[in-house]
Amino acid sequence: MIERPFPFDASDTGLSAAERAFRHVWRAISQGAIAPGELVTEEGLAAGLSISRTPLRDAVQRLEALGLLVREPARGLRVPPLDLDEMAQLSATREVLEGLLAAQAARRVAAGEADAAPLRAAHDRLARVMRIADADLTLAAGLDFHEALRRLADNRAAAACHQQVLLAFERYRHLARGAAERPEHVLAEHATVVAAIEAGDAAAAERAMRRHIAAGRDIYASVLSKTLPKTGRPSPKTHGPIGFRRDPYETS
Predict the structure, then answer these.
(1) pLDDT for 232
(2) Which of 50, 100, 131, 199 is 20 to 30 A from 72, comparing alpha carbons?
(3) The pTM is what?
(4) For residue 81, what is the DSSP state?
């Protein structure tokens, strides 16, 4: 069971003890430092973070709500194993949300309510980072792009749901490390999304974003299916955008 110190992250400066604890443990789970199936205790986590049990308990409750920790009576907390069905469900939800965000961003640009420059800048940063060939930096820059889209869309309800889905999905996103060809495809897919949003084409932006998320889901499923023990259960169908419909704001 884990009772080791957690690395300090400069971005955590100024946060409450509970928020720091949440971010540290979330990163450890997402990046595999606390492995799927590993058992931890509140005492061990608190010791590793050098904080009291009260803020740690708040962080644990948030992680339980995300499905990243499961309480086992008289034993502690376990990180649930990676699961194809969970990955597919989270990704399908993310696909719908990000399609909505992309369409909303395009409409705001078309109406002159927003400037797509920050999204273009995030895309350009990702292109520069990819040339360094650092997997961690590439994943971080990729996440920045999707967060820039969320800000550009300015849809509070969708943004709140999107943030929770990304927090739960992050440990699956790291599976992209096992697909060497994925980064180049990501860049091309992002470019298509950015171009549609800059053009103010909501329908094209939604289509492009949903196809991007669906393509990632296929990669994650492929990598995950090679690492999980065989259960005899068929893999979930993950190919293609889930239930794509034309932009509901389009006229007939």
Answers:
(1) 44
(2) 50
(3) 0.83
(4) P
